[in-house]
Each structure stands twice: as C-alpha cells, then as structure tokens.
Write a structure and sequence with these properties.
alpha/beta, Aspartate Aminotransferase, domain 1, Aspartate Aminotransferase, domain 2, 8-stranded mixed sheet
Length: 430
C-alpha cells in the first residue's frame, strides 16, 4: 500500500460481545447447543413484543405513505415535540424540540458524539465500560479509553474521590460519562452520586454525557433520577432510545437531548457540528419515530414496563441466590437493565479450576482459539473454556468491558425459567 490507510485509533475498536460469536458458531457446528448469554436482545431470548405495539406499527404507521419517506434531519417534528414536552415536565429542565436529534440507534449517536469531539478532548467513563463508548472514545483520541472505577465491593458505585482526582490531574478530560442504569453491572446511580458528578463538572468546566437507554428499566423507578433533573446550568447530553424498553432493538431508534446549549458557546457549536454530521446522512429511520408518541403515551405502556422489570427482579434474585455462597464467584444484585456481572473471588484467580471441553473436537478448537493470544486475561480464557465445555456464551469483563476487575457478564433475558436456572447452576458448578 502506497500509504498507511489504517486509522491510528483502530486498535482501540473492540466489541467482544459479538466477536465471540464466530467461536460459538464453530462449536455449534460440532453439535454443541449454544446458550446465547452474550448480547442484550430480549426478542432473541423469547420475549414477545406486545400485540398493541405491533398494531400501532402495522395498522397505522405502515399504512401511511410518509412512514417510508425521509424524515427531517433532526427527526420527525411529532416525535421531537412529544419528547420535548414530556421530558421538560419530567425533569423541570426545559428541553426544546430543536435540541433533540434522532439517530439510527445509540451506536450511531455514540459514534457521532466522539468522532466530532476535538481530538485533544477526552471523555472519562466508568470501568467496567460499555464497549461502544470506550472503544470509540479511545479510537477518537488514538489512545486507551480513560476510566474511573466502579467498585464491586460497594455495590458497583464509583469512587468519587478517584473521579475528582483524575479530572484534576488530567487536564484534557473535558467530559464525564455515566451509564444509568449501568451496563454491564445493573447499578443505578444514587442521587447524591449524581450531584457529585454535577459539582465536579461545574468546578472544572466540563460537559456531562448520560447514556440513559435503560432509564425505564430501573427496577425501583423512584430510585432513578435523570441527570437532566440536576444539571440546569452546565452543558449536558442525554442519550435515550426505544430498543431496550419496548423491546424493539431492530428499530435502531435512539436520540440525543442537548441541554443548556445557551450556557457555553463552544458546547453550542459542538452540538451543531453533530447535527451537521447527521445532515450528511440525510436523516434517521422514519418508521419508529412515527409511532413513538402513540406508543409512549398509551395507558398500557406503564404496565408493560412494570411487568418487564418485575421479571428481571425475580431473575436477579434467582441469580443472586445461586451465586451468593459460591466458592468462586461474587455477585452484586442489579437494580436496573437486564444484565448480571459476576466477578472472581481470590481463590479462583489464584487457582483457576480445570474446565474440560465437551469433546475432543471442541478441545482442538479451544486450543486453537487460546493460542491466538498467549497473554489472554483469565476471565476471557474462562469464558472460552466455559463455552467449549457447556455451550454457555458469556462475555469477559476485562476485554469485553474495559474492566479493572475480572469476571463475566450474562443476561437476565431467558424467558424459560427452567433453562435460566439450569444455566446459572451449570456455571456455578464449574
């Protein structure tokens, strides 16, 4: 090649959640049944989209010609008007419809937010991290993602002194990211912790970025507080979407809410640059935007969310009770979303158990996979061995979620209760 065409930050791009699929598929071809616990797709795990939501799509939106047309770049006015009104009432923080920008899922939004940030400006996020945030932020900066630690021995809450010190002594940190409820830990940020983030941002003249895609899947809604309800005078972006709470992941419908753009000219111009970048794509998918106001305002919607969170509460309790006396594993009961992060006890780290592959062919595939990285972290090795032995596909925390602690993430999505309990017990029996 005449010139090097590889982007300097390409080495930071990693999405272990899906990259493990190739190895799982090779095992499946051997006849090993795979239990897919790697990705948060409720429909793939047996959940059904409520019929009344399907009716809005099939009987109304699909019959409307404009559902097949371009939408305005920012999004359909009806959807933005609805969100503007409801979010302003929810938070007490005025949100203009002109400060709402739709994307093809939050992956698209995350890519735009970091890509159009000044190369010398960094956004520090949590560890464990969601890989779309951490890898794209790292790629943008051509460096490893900057993180603050979530503590598994303190309900996965951040050490705010650690956050403050890293901001103080790392001048190019310009923004702070929170994911609330958190993926992969299921932690919900307490009010006092959120207030501390706001105070730090105000003191050091930072912007805040809150990924609240799971906001309506907090198990105890009164414990969830949107950052928009606290940050009235500092630059703030909030990310939300339809994919997780409906559930309709294939809709690829997410949006960013820009708050307080009048407080900082530089932030206002940055928000404008993200909109102009989106303009080059013309717009985001029209159909899900068209049905958004009717679905979210339907009287059945609150019960739909209540039923889902009650399922996840029960499954989180089953998981917690399975692992609470485990020889090898530690678990914190989640308070939101539909994931479970399991970490390793010292006895596991110091003396990992031997996990026998399901058969000779699986052993050969495993050996080949392990040979690709001779310095592989213990938790990734465990996830590959677990997969080759039992067919249970999980994601390592270290490489999958840029985590400072080792363990794995699985989901709480399995609709078959018997299969879910069997999966937990199989892991715990290793």
């Amino acid at each position: 090649m005449r010139n090097n065409i590889l982007h300097p930050g390409a080495g930071e791009l990693n999405y272990e959640i899906r990259s493990v699929v190739e190895f799982a598929n090779s095992l499946q071809r051997l006849g090993i049944e795979i239990t897919w616990e790697n990705i948060g797709d409720p429909l793939a795990k047996g959940e059904k989209l409520p019929s009344w939501i399907k009716q809005y799509v099939s009987e109304e939106a699909l019959q409307e010609d404009l559902s097949y047309a371009y939408s305005p770049t920012k999004g359909l006015e009806s959807a933005r008007q609805y969100l503007s009104k409801t979010r302003s009432l929810e938070t007490g923080n005025n949100l203009s419809k002109e400060n709402i920008l739709f994307f093809n899922g939050l992956g698209d939004a995350i890519s735009k937010v970091y890509t159009w940030l000044h190369p010398n400006s960094r956004v520090m996020g949590p560890s464990p991290a969601y890989p779309t945030h951490s890898s794209i932020e790292g790629a943008h900066a051509r460096s490893h993602h900057l993180t603050y630690d979530l503590d598994p021995y303190n309900n996965w809450l951040p050490d705010m002194e650690d956050v403050r010190n890293k901001v103080k002594y790392t001048p190019n940190i310009t923004g702070l990211l929170i994911i609330n409820p958190d993926n992969p830990t299921g932690m919900v940020y307490p009010l006092e912790t959120l207030k501390e983030f706001v105070a730090i941002a105000k003191e050091y003249n930072l912007f805040l970025l809150a990924d609240e895609i799971y906001c309506n899947l907090a198990y105890y809604p009164e414990e969830f507080v949107s950052l928009a309800a606290l940050a009235y005078d500092i630059p703030l972006m909030i990310m939300r979407g339809l994919s997780k709470e409906l559930p309709w992941p294939g809709s690829r419908c997410g949006w960013v809410e820009f708050y307080n753009t009048d407080k900082d000219h530089n932030y206002k111009e940055y928000a404008k640059s993200i909109e102009e970048a989106k303009m080059n794509e013309v717009c985001s998918t029209t159909l899900p935007q068209a049905v958004l106001p009717k679905i979210l305002s339907d009287s059945r919607y609150k019960n739909h969310l209540k039923d889902r969170t009650e399922k996840y509460i029960k499954r989180s309790e089953v998981a917690f009770n399975t692992f609470k006396n485990s020889q090898y594993f530690e678990v914190v009961r989640p308070k939101g979303a539909f994931y479970l992060s399991v970490t390793f006890k010292e006895v596991f780290i110091n003396n990992p158990p031997h996990i026998e592959p399901a058969n000779k062919q699986a052993a050969e595939l495993l050996e080949k996979e392990l040979s690709k990285d001779l310095e592989m972290n213990l938790d990734k090795k465990f996830c590959l061995e677990l997969l080759a032995s039992t067919g249970i596909c999980t994601v390592p925390l270290s490489s999958g979620f840029n985590s400072h602690v080792q363990g794995f993430r699985m989901t709480l999505l399995e609709e078959d209760d018997e299969k879910f309990e069997k999966t937990l017990k199989t892991i715990n029996s290793i």
